[in-house]
Every structure is written in C-alpha cells, then in structure tokens.
Amino acid sequence: MIQISDLTKSFEGRTVLDRVEATFETGITNLIIGRSGSGKTVMMKSIIGLIRPDRGEILYDGRNILAMGKNELKSLRRETGMLFQGSALFDSMTVLENVMFPLDMFSREAARDRRRRALFCLERVNLADAGDLYPSEISGGMMKRAAIARAIALQPKYLLCDEPNSGLDPKTALVIDELIHGITQEYHMTTIVNTHDMNSVMNIGENIIFIREGVREWQGSKEQILSSGNAALNDFIFASDRLRNARKPEEQ
Q1: Torsion of CA 223, 229, 231, 233, to 10 degrees
Q2: How far is CA 79 from CA 3, 106, 144, 191, in A?
Q3: End-to-end Cα distance, the chain
Q4: Residue ranges of the alpha helices (H) in the chain?
Q5: Region of 208 on the Ramachandran plot (φ > 0 left; ψ -120 to 50 alpha; else beta)
Q6: Residue closest to 173 by CA, chosen among 197, 137, 193
Q7: Is the Cβ–Cβ distance between 134 and 99 less than 8 Å?
Q8: pLDDT score for 88
C-alpha cells in the first residue's frame, strides 16, 4: 500500500499540488487521471521520489520516503518497478540484456540464475523469442512489454507506470492494460498508473484518483465513475464526445 497525505508542491509561487490525500491499495490497479497541467505528473514524480514536495507524507507500507536515508532509499528502489512513458530501453543492449540490467545491478544471484529470471520475465510478457533482438528491431508494443518484463525482474512490491499506452494503437494498448492488471494480481503488487486514456480507465480502473488543478477532485472505481455526479469529472470523461458532436453540423 502507498499512502500520501497533505501532499503540497509549488513552483515559482504557483501551487501545483494542494494538500492531496490518497491511498493506493495493494493487488489492484490504481489510476491517476486528469487533464494536462492538472498536477498528476508532479504527483507521480513525487511518489517516485524524483520531486520533493514542499509538505506532506508519502508512505510505502508505513515507511515515509521523505524521511529515508541513502541506504533506505536504495532498498526501496530495489522493491520498486518503473515503467516509463517511452519504455526507456537501452538501444545498445538486446531485449534480454535490458531485462537483465536491474538484476545485474541489484541482485546477488549467480549470472546463470539472473539470466533464468530474465528469460522467465520475457516469457511472462510473451516475448520469449525476442531476447536476442535490439529495441530498434521490435515494435512499440513489444518495447512496452519488454519494459514491463524489466520492471518486474526484481519481483517488486510496487509498480509505477507513467502513461504506459502513450503512442500505442487501441488494440495494443488493451494488451498492455491487461498485462499490467494481470501481473498486479499475480504478484500482489501496489500498482499506480498515470494515464489520460479513458479506455484504460474503463478497462482496468479499480481505484481511480481524479486530479483537477492540483486537488484530488474525486476517487472511486470504474463502476462508479459514470454515475459520480461530479461535473468536472464528467467534463473530463465526455470532452471527446462533445468535440465529435460539435463537428457534425460543420460536416453536414
């Protein structure tokens, strides 16, 4: 479980996060949604530890990341898998070498065992035959799956995903959604996904945090979101539909 309380951050006098409170449960997919500029990216970066908030607490199963020393942070990094927006694979490494990278850095297991673990992770994301290929030789969807394999190589307790479906077609995005959801349940991880993709929200949104102008505007599940009665949330959800409808008279 990851909990944040009173999370506040300002840049040059502008408040980007304003006393945000949220709980991200273990074993389910937790989503952060909101418009561009709403504060959700700053919130995610604060949770990861890339940005230090002005005030508040960020608790990983009761451990405050903001009060950790260097060794404690290193230990927490080992427990945390990261899936970046652009996959962030190393171009000079094969897919297998990319997945082995965190194992080589943090694991004390023998090389043979590290390789076996990496191969298992590639098989788990249906990339068993792609280990010897380089990132430039595989598709965008395969790159995201390889990045997921790398993220789970150390069997993390926490999985943090930044716009995992960015740049993917809807069918491939659905595959990535289901993969993230499946491994979250399988490994009983605390998973947080930062997204603006409403297909992801309605597909895997078990716990959804809606951020608006730096404030937690709404929290609930995908079953509750369409009947929330929250005007700002409805405006965010149905904006694309209204735009499509607005174009129709011009097209006639």
Answers
A1: -10
A2: 16, 10, 20, 12
A3: 52
A4: 40-48, 70-78, 95-106, 111-124, 140-151, 170-187, 198-204, 222-225, 231-251
A5: beta
A6: 197
A7: no
A8: 87
Strands across the sheet containing 14-24: 14-24, 2-11, 55-60, 63-64
Residues in the chain: 252
pLDDT less than 50: residues of the chain: 240-244, 246-252
Token pair of 159 as six digits = 């999985």
Contact 189, 205 (CB under 8 A): no
Q: Alpha-carbon distance 62 to 60, whole Å? A: 5
- Number of neighbouring beta carbons within 10 Å of residue 92: 9
Residue type, 38: S
For residues 22 and 208, give the distance between their C-alpha atoms in angstroms, rounded to a whole number. Answer: 10
Exposure string for 135-174, b = 16+ CB within 10 A, e = fewer: beebeebbbbbbbbbbbbbbebbbbbbbbbbbebeeebbb
The reported pLDDT for the residue numbered 87 is 78
